User: Fold these one by one.
Assistant:
Number 1:
Amino acid sequence: MADVGPRVSTKLCTSKYTGRYPTVGLFDTRSREAWFCKPRDGQAIRTSHAALITGVDDATGTVWKDRFLCFWFYTPNTGSGLILGYPIDWDEAHLLVRVDPHWDYDRQRAIPPELSDQIEANLERQMKHGERVANIIRDAKPGYTFHVHYVASRAADSMFYARRVAST
């Protein structure tokens, strides 16, 4: 029986990444695969995450995104501005992984705010997914160091400069 529901578009995405261009991507929490938007004339970083998912329409695209952990990868000197009011040194490369303390991507359910132990365990799982993405980028040997940030909807729930990944 074929997998029903959302899939990552292989027309727009690849599971291989070279680190040579800024991009957005999705981590499929079910299959444990990272998908990177293809260069698309240098505009991969501006592509919406929902656009990378097939089997959806505009009305359901953002709902299906709840199965996929979103990330952005900026090569050196490709980003600008603050992230949730936090300064980033854009001369360097950065991996921003979207985390949500109250949404469990693995179990596809919301976690009530009063269950702090479950929220902590959930964030740890999301950070492990982010580490998998960081390792894929590291293994591509991009030729520069990058920083990993875990970004939530509020700065208080985020972790900036969580890890520095050295160039190999």
Note: The two ends are 42 Å apart (CA to CA).
Number 2:
Amino acid sequence: MEIIDVTGIKLTPGNEGKDCLGNGEHYDENGNIIECCCNECDYLIRCLSEEEKKMLRIK
């Protein structure tokens, strides 16, 4: 699945966010860190580990 963020960054949900260019750990072609897009991403749930998902279900 390929999703383009409003900033033009290609988002790749899944794999605990490790492959996503919007995870705050990648650099653009100019060597600048790409800002983390996770807080605004509609697909964040797909990047969470099973343990993180369980924690969200706590009432």
Note: The chain has a mean pLDDT of 90.
